[in-house]
Amino acid sequence: MDVTSIIDPLNDAQRQAVTAPSQAMLVLAGAGSGKTRVLVHRIAWQIQVEGLPAHSILAVTFTNKAAKEMRGRIENLLNVSANTLWIGTFHGIAHRLLRRHAAQAKLPDTFQVMDSGDQLRVIKRLLSTLNLDDAKWPPREIQWFINAQKDEGIRAKHCVESGDAHQRQMLAVYRAYEQLCERSGLVDFAELLLRAHELLRDNPEVLAFYQQRFRQVHVDEFQDTNTIQYAWLRLLTDGRDNLFVVGDDDQSIYGWRGAKIENIYSFQRHYPNHQVIKLEQNYRSTGTILKAANNIIANNTGRMGKELWTEAGEGEKISLYTAFNEQDEAYFVVERIKAWVNEGGLRSDAAILYRANAQSRQFEEKLMATGTPYRVYGGLRFFDRAEIKNALAYLRLMSNRDDDASFERIINTPTRGIGAKTLDELRIIARDQSISLWAASIALLNQRKMTARATNALVGFLELIKQLSLQAESLELYEKVKLVVEKSGLIALYTKEKMDKGEEKVENLEELVNAAKLFDFDRANEENMGELDMFLTHASLESGDSQADDFEDCVQLMTLHSAKGLEFKLVFLVGMEEGLFPSQQSVDDAGRLEEERRLCYVGMTRAMQQLYLCYTESRRLYGRETYPRPSRFLREIPPELIHEVRLRATVSRPVSVAQPKAASLQNLGSYKLGQRVSHAKFGEGVVLQIEGSGAQERVQINFKQVGVKWLMLAYANLEVL
Predict the structure, then answer these.
(1) % helix / strand / coil in the chain, to the nearest 5?
(2) In the prediction, which pLDDT does 549 show?
(3) What is the dihedral of CA 371, 372, 376, 380, to 10 degrees?
(4) Residue 187 belongs to what H/E stretch?
(5) Helix, strand or coil for residue 345?
(6) Pick the catalytic residue: 118, 188, 198, 220?
(7) Is 68 annotated as catalytic?
(8) CATH level 2 (architecture), domain 287-380+549-644
(9) What pLDDT, in 10s, does the model give residues 337-357?
(10) 36 an active-site residue?
C-alpha cells in the first residue's frame, strides 16, 4: 500500500500524530505548525490505512470556511468524494442531528433557526409584551444572559433564584423567551447546541446509534470549545477513547464569549489513556518573531508548555516605535506601508492589529488621506445585510407562519400602513392566548374592532404572504426567491433610495437569487428537508460565521481577536500600552491578564516576515487624554530582539536561534537503514527511514525510477537485495 501522499509532506511530530494508533489524543498545535494538515492527513490515514468507512468519521470545527477547506483537502488527498464524511461546524452538526431526530428532541419538523439578529428582535418584542423598559433592560444584555446560560447547559427551570431583583427579572424574561420559542418553533444558535446535547443525553437509543456510527471523532480549535460543546463531545465518545482533538492552550482568546481553556486540561482527566503530541515547528514566522512570542507567553502560569521554532532563519529584528500621540502612530504606520508597497509588496500582505475597535479611526483617516485602499476586516457579510435579511424573512414566513421574528421584521417593510398600535395589539393577543403573531392577526381581524384603514393594511399583508406561497409552490428555489424580491416590494423600496446605496441593495437582492440558483441542495438532502428550508437554514448558519469576505489588494485593519487564523508578511501591533493592551479591565484579574497575554502571542505570530510594535506617549481615546505607560508585554521581550525606530535608537547584537535536534530513527523489524530492496511496481531502492511497529510499521525508500516513497510494510512485499 503506497501511503507516500499521506505521510511524506509531514514532519516527524505531524507524522507521529497522523499515524498513531486509535486512542484519545491531544495534539498541542502551536501557531503556524500545520494543525489543519494533521487533521486532514489523520482522517485520510484512517480511511486508507486503517480501513474505516468515511461515514464513520466525524470532524467538527468552528467555521463553515474551515469545514469546507478540510473536506476539499481530504477529497484531493484521497482522490475520492468526501460526501459521506460528517464534517461541519458545531452548530451545523447539531442542526443536522436535530433535523434527523426532531420528534425525540421535542421540536416540530418545521422548526426554524434564528440568527443573532432575529434572536435580538424576538427579545425586543418580548420586552415590549412584558412592559419592560429596554433602557433599563437592554435587549443585548438579556440576549447575552440567555445564551450564556445555554452555553453552560442551564435551562430557565434549572436557575436558582436569589434575593437579587435584577436576577429574578432576567430569569423571568428567560422563561418567557423559552415559551415563545417553543410556541413558534424557533431555535437560536445556543439552543442548537443545548438541544443536541439533551437529545443525546435523554435518548439512549439515539446516543447508542451515534456512538456506534462515529468510530472516530475529530475536533479542531479545541481550546475554543465551551461547556456544552465539550459535554456533547464527551457523550459521543464516552468510554471509547476515540476523541482526537487539536488545539493550543496558548491561543485561547475567546473566554469572553464562553470558550473554556479548562477543557484542554479536563480532557487529560476525562481520558486517562490519552496521548499528547506537540507540534512546535512553525512554518510561518521568522526565528526572531517566534523567540519573542515564546518569551512573552512563558510568563503565563499553568501552561502545558511548548517552544515554537523554525528552519526559516532569524529574519529581521522586531521594530519598536514610540509615537508622540495616536496621530503620529497612524502616520508612522501608513508611511511604512507606503514604503512596503513602493518596494514591491502587496497592500493585502500588510495588517494593522489593534485591541479596541475605536483605534481604527485614526488609521482609516490617514489611509484615506493618502489614497491607500483599505478594508476593516469583519464588516457585514452577505447574509448579514439588512436587505438580505428582509427577503429571507418573507421566505421564512412563507415556510412557517408561526415564525414571529420574521413576521415582525417584515410586517411593515416596505411601509404598508400597519402602525405601532396594531402591532402592540397583536403582541398582547399573542401573549394572552399563547399563539403566534400570524394567528393573533386572524383573531384581531375576527374581532372587527379596527379602523377600515388598519384592517385593509393587515389583510393586505396576510394576503401577500398567502399569494406568494401559492405562486411559489411549483417554482424552482431560485424562482421562489426571485418572486419574493420582486413581489414583496423590496426592489421598489430600495430603488427609491438616494445615491448608490439603493442600487447596491438591489444588486445584493439580485445576488441572493443567484445564491439560490447555485445552492448545492444534493449534498444536504439527507435531512429530508425541503429545498427552501435547507436554503434558509444555510443562510442562518452562514450569518453566524465569523469569517470576513474575500478582499482585494488593500491594507487590512482588524482587532486582534479577528486576526486569529490569519497571516500577513507585514504586521503592526499598535496601542501597546498599559490600560489599552492589556486592557484596563484585565490588569487586576490574573485570569484575564493571561488571556490578554495569549492575545498578544496570537497577534505577534500572525507576522511572517516583519513585525512592528507601536505605543504612544500620549493618547486621546474615548474622549480622554491619557499619558500611558508602555505595555508590560514589551518588557517581556528580550532587548536583543528589538530595534527601536527613533533618533535615540540603539541596535542590539544579532541573536542566534537554537536549531532543533534531529529526530532519532530506530532500526525496526527485519529491515535496516541503507539496505537495498526491490518492489514489484517501483523497482529497486534504498531504505531511508523506518517508523512504527506491528501493523503500523512503515518504511521510506528512495527508488531509482520513481523517487522517494513511503510504504506500509504489511503490504509492501519487499525483497531484500
Answers:
(1) 50, 15, 35
(2) 47
(3) 60
(4) strand 186-187
(5) coil
(6) 220
(7) no
(8) 3-Layer(aba) Sandwich (3.40)
(9) 999 999 999 999 999 999 987
(10) yes
